[in-house]
C-alpha cells in the first residue's frame, strides 16, 4: 500500500518567509483561496489550534484535523473535525482516511514540525515584505521545482511554486 504524499501549503514572503501577523494572513491575493480550495478539497488537512480558531470553522469537503495540546477545549465538535494532541496522532488519523495526499495548512509551529517529513510544498511566494510575527521554516532541502506560475502584474506580485525534495 502506498503512503500518502505529505504536502505543505502556504503563502510566504520571498526573502524573510513571512507568514502571518497577529494570527492573520498577510495578504488577500485574488485567486489564492480558490486555488487552496481546489488543491485541498476532498483531502485531509492538518492545522494547529490557532489556525483553526482564525478560520473559525471546519473547512467543508475536507477532513479537518486540529493539533491542540490542550485538547478540544473551546473547539465545538463538528462533522469532519478531529482534534488530537500531537503531530504523531494527527498523521496516524490522517493516514486512516487519506490514501493520496495530506495537506498541512499551518500555522508556523505546525509547518516547522512537518517540514522535515513533508514530500511537497505548494507555495505562494509573494514579492513583498510586510511586518510579520510568524515565519515559514527554512525549506532549502526542497531542491526540485516542479512547477512555477508567475503573477508579476498583481499587486503585490507573486508566484505559485511547487517543490519536491
TrEMBL record:
Top EC group: oxidoreductase
GO biological process, alphabetically ordered: dihydrofolate metabolic process; folic acid metabolic process; one-carbon metabolic process; tetrahydrofolate biosynthetic process
A GO cellular component entry from the record: cytosol
Keywords from the named record: NADP, One-carbon metabolism, Oxidoreductase
GO molecular function annotations of the record: dihydrofolate reductase activity; NADP binding
Catalytic activity annotation: (6S)-5,6,7,8-tetrahydrofolate + NADP(+) = 7,8-dihydrofolate + NADPH + H(+)
Keyword set includes Lipid biosynthesis: no
Role summary: Key enzyme in folate metabolism. Catalyzes an essential reaction for de novo glycine and purine synthesis, and for DNA precursor synthesis.
Name this protein carries in UniProt: Dihydrofolate reductase
Organism: Candidatus Zambryskibacteria bacterium RIFOXYC1_FULL_39_10
Source species taxonomy: Bacteria, Candidatus Zambryskiibacteriota
